[in-house]
Write a structure and sequence with these properties.
With 702 residues, the chain is mainly alpha-helical. Helix content is 72%, strand content 0%. The protein is built from 25 helices and no strands. α3 runs antiparallel to α4 and α7 packs antiparallel against α10. The longest helix has 30 residues.
């Protein structure tokens, strides 16, 4: 049973309907009745519909208005291109292929391009159909400009939506909680009961799935990349703090308390910088405290106490928390400090810090220019479907053939099953709407004033109810809207409703055929494949990191070319897997499955491997490793790598892996060896836990 819209969703849809209706009516009526410019009236009507309904732009009213103004030059260029290519069907089809793929693929650059893409496609679709009338281009452009400016004005002033919570604000709130918890852990009583659960719950609120699309930092620019990295590092930090809170109680040593105070100061400073949107101080102070902590841990080892193993693990946990705090501070500094060098940090972690904006967008586009990218697959499916629809409409000389392409554009989904479900509902709704429109056209005849009075209330109802109630209501009510609108432009009969039914059914058939032939299972198969590729790519980096930590090499130094390649490959696979998973979670079929692996654990495995590769080999610790310790490092890392390969097959019984504890964790061992092996043990245990969870099937996917 479909989920009923909430009160907030209904109110939001009503506000949007008022803004779109006001801007469409303010452009349509003067152009049609005062200026007697029917072409201008049509484009003034459809521009707010394209950018306000077909493309529900994300963000606040001010942000949506800016996006509309930014999109107007592109809309005008597409209208001009469509007007020129309407000379022949094949020219229009070729243009449709390029425009459809370019706009759909460009959505990878961020939520605003993604939101505007469907609406921008409509401008080319409207203009590329016969008659070939280049002399009407000035009227078309005037209508686009009029409708777009009115929509921008209404988005800014008419019934503005309440402000949405920003992602930076959410990060700042979580960092405030981390600051308070870190301070509490330095005291004798430690953190309050239940602190670990509160920390984990706060971290979960930073997931993109908990945020409106408009506030997710998914763009290709430096600020969005930095904010996304700050959010992921903050989630990692609070999870690590939660684990520290849940460790057996005991008095922390003075070095750990001092480092936790530095973490608290770093979190508080980053939170203030995020709220004020000003450059943050770098992480140099925390890095200095980490260095002092490492020296203190070697000169005053905790291993000489009564519980060496527990204390060593607590120190390793504090160290991982401090490393995450360094990442957070650096990311915040990059988000609001602009292009700057990152000193003292592995370049792979903040590879985007010194690159110009054009290069960052090029990297995003080229990284997804592969058939394994779900963004590429969606763009190809959209472009091919629109091309086929344009060819069919042109070859059969369908009246109002742009409705065929509009049906493909609005009814297409990422899976064949979802497309079929949507098409069925849309066809039923269109038939009902066509019947109502036919009766209206028969009864009203040529009484233009009747249609003029009905247009505004019909748009209000259609643009409020349609987005809330699904494709049946949306297509049925939109059929009434277009019938009433076109009845004011030129004399029509009840056959206009018949034409719309034929066009929608034709477009639905084309869209369904493309859904069956082009990647019919959506992101499900690609998600599984990309997760497997990530697990296989990250495995060699585990062994390379273990070798570098033991002093056999360095991931960024001479002789580390193989490790560098592993870092780049793992990072690339992680991006592709995250994109595939993001789409997978939006598909209806994903929510009902009970046999999928825990893909979030696989993503966490890749991210944790990269973090360890960045930091573990960079510590200046004594490497007085015995032969047995070196053998354990090689064996444990190799076991994790082999388990990653097995996990990539997602076996039915899951993956069994639990690395043996290091042999040298005993009183009397060299202090540097104790701390070194403790850090590696904590890291490898966490990786093994990710693999055990990620490879298991049968649980509810998360």
């Amino acid at each position: 049973m479909p989920k009923r819209p909430s009160l907030a969703e209904s109110v939001g849809a009503g506000r949007r309907a008022v803004r779109v209706t006001a801007s469409a009516a303010a452009g349509f009526y003067p152009a049609a009745y005062l200026l007697d410019q029917p072409v201008t009236a049509v484009y003034a009507l459809f521009t707010p519909i394209a950018l306000g309904v077909l493309s529900p732009l994300p963000g606040s009213g001010r942000a949506r208005a800016v996006t509309v103004l930014w999109a107007l030059p592109a809309a005008a260029a597409l209208a001009a291109l469509g007007t020129a290519l309407a000379v022949t069907t094949w020219a229009a089809v070729a243009g449709m292929l390029l425009v459809g793929f370019g706009l759909a693929f460009g959505a990878v650059c961020g939520p605003r391009p993604a939101g505007a893409a469907p609406g921008l496609l409509l401008f080319y679709i409207l203009a590329c159909f016969p008659p070939f009338a280049p002399q009407t281009l000035p009227q078309r452009l005037a209508g686009v400009a009029l409708g777009g400016l009115l929509l921008a004005l209404c988005e800014r002033t008419v019934l503005p939506d309440p402000p949405q919570p920003s992602y930076r604000g959410r990060i700042a709130d979580v960092l405030d909680l981390a600051e308070r918890t870190s301070v509490a852990l330095t005291r004798t009583g430690g953190a309050e009961p239940g602190a670990g659960g509160r920390l984990r719950a706060a971290g979960r609120e930073l997931r993109f799935s908990r945020l409106p699309a408009g506030v997710r930092p998914t763009g290709a620019g430096r600020r969005d990349r930095a904010l996304a990295q700050a959010g992921s590092a903050t989630r990692r930090l609070v999870d690590q703090l939660a684990a520290l809170c849940e460790m057996p109680p005991g008095a922390a040593d003075s070095a750990s308390r001092q480092l936790l105070r530095g973490v608290a100061d770093g979190c508080g400073g980053a939170a203030r910088s995020l709220r004020d949107r000003r450059p943050a101080a770098g992480p140099e102070l925390i890095e200095e405290m980490i260095a002092e902590f490492l020296v203190s841990r070697e000169t005053n080892p905790a291993g000489r106490g009564a519980r060496p193993r527990e204390l060593l693990r607590q120190q390793s946990a504090v160290l991982t928390i401090a490393v995450s705090a360094v990442t957070v501070r650096t990311a915040v500094a990059l988000a609001y400090g602009g292009r700057r060098p990152v000193h003292g940090l592995p370049r792979e972690q903040f590879w985007y810090a010194g690159l110009p904006a054009v290069r960052l967008f090029t990297v995003r586009l080229s990284g997804n220019l592969t058939r394994r990218s779900v963004v590429f697959q969606n763009a190809m499916r959209t472009a091919l479907g629109l091309c086929a629809a344009r060819l069919v409409a042109g070859s059969l000389d369908l009246s109002h053939g742009f409705w065929v392409l509009l049906a493909v554009l609005t009814l297409g989904r990422t899976t064949a099953g979802a497309t079929w479900s949507t098409v069925r509902a849309a066809v039923v709704g269109t038939l009902a709407g066509a019947l109502a429109a036919g009766l209206l056209l028969v009864e009203a005849g040529g009484a233009t004033e009747v249609y003029a009075w009905l247009l505004v209330p019909m748009m209000l109802v259609a643009f409020t109810v349609g987005p809330l109630e699904g494709p049946a209501w949306a297509q049925g009510l939109f059929t009434l809207v277009v019938s009433v609108a076109f009845a004011q432009i030129a004399p029509v009969t009840w056959r206009l409703a018949e034409m719309r039914v034929v066009d929608v059914v034709t477009g639905s058939a084309v869209g369904l055929l493309c859904g069956v032939l082009a990647w019919p299972f959506g992101a499900r198969a690609e998600t599984r494949r990309s997760m497997a590729a990530l697990l296989r790519a990250a495995g060699p980096l585990v062994t390379a990191t273990a070798a570098a930590t033991a002093g056999d090499g360095c991931t960024g130094g001479p002789g580390g070319e193989e490790a560098d390649r592993a870092v780049r490959l793992t990072r690339h696979r992680l991006r592709i897997a995250e994109a595939a998973y993001a789409q997978y979670r939006t598909e209806p079929s994903a929510s009902g499955s009970g046999t999928e692996p825990d893909y979030l654990a696989a993503l966490n495995f890749g991210a944790r491997v990269l973090v360890g590769a960045h930091w573990l080999p960079r510590t200046d610790r004594v490497r007085e490793l015995s032969g047995a310790a070196r053998h354990w490092l090689r064996e444990a890392a190799g076991e994790v790598e082999a388990a990653g390969v097995r996990a990539a097959g997602f076996p039915a019984g899951g993956v069994r892996i639990r690395p043996e504890p290091p042999p040298s964790l005993a009183p009397g061992s060299p202090p540097g060896v104790l701390s070194l092996l403790s850090d590696m043990e904590v890291w490898l245990d966490a990786l093994a836990a990710d693999l055990r969870a990620g490879a298991a099937s049968g649980g509810r996917p998360r």
